Amino acid sequence: MTGLTNLAAGDVAAQGLMVKAERVCKNFGHVEVLKGIDLEVQQGEVMCVVGPSGSGKSTFLRCINHLEKVDAGRLWVDGHLVGYRQRGDKLYELREKEVAAQRRDIGMVFQRFNLFPHMTALQNVMEAPMLVKGESKDAAKARAEQLMERVGLSDRMGNYPSQLSGGQQQRVAIARALAMQPKLMLFDEPTSALDPELVGEVLDVMRDLAREGMTMVVVTHEMGFAREVGDSLVFMDGGVVVEQGVPREVLANPQHARTQAFLSKVL
Ligand code: ADP
Ligand code: MG
Is this model's pTM higher than 0.90 or not? Predict the structure, then answer.
């Protein structure tokens, strides 16, 4: 563990940050997918992550959300070391229940909307608070109705996913994630599966969320969104952060050849 800050110091440094990654590594078999990711996300920050396919963007989001285990390095979310508890100078793996408790505060939206097909839009949004938090049906329904209105779908609450467009389904998926009142929202290419004319309505909802102060990490190819809404832009390639900075500056004046090559293809 040489080169890492000691745990206590890392814990202190992670306070006040929503995410702190320190040399985060992840392998699948003998393939190194994340090769030492260092980054910090402040409370209220919108970080956009871009990079070529296969560079490890989804894997990194999945580590933040406990869907993958970090193999080396350390990752804190909201000041808590992901997956571990410290006693003295030893680390203990969290039990499944404790992991679930950590995950509750993180919302995630995927490229494929993954709504429950046999439930209406409203029921999709009500489900997790009732199931996971034991919220009453009335309370869950009241919040779900508010959230459906917030994503512009108050007239679609009784529709099943198959009766909704891709853009509408993705807005329901965002409402569903918000129903758990997360502190952090992760978006993994939320508009990549949508027809071009439906992209804007989803980005608008995300823009509103950012304006309201939600902390967000957004993997996206929408450079306009990154420029306008992002507080920071991270360019990942080959499992490392190649470059990061203020979106406008990185996009206008990329410093690294790999960033330049990538941006020349997508801009
Ligand atoms: P990105 O989101 O940037 O396109 P990913 O994080 O999805 O990249 O994938 C990075 C690399 O990790 C790819 O080479 C991918 O094939 C590999 N990978 C991702 N998930 C798994 C897995 N569960 N098992 C094996 N390899 C995986
Ligand atoms: Mg991906």
Answer: yes
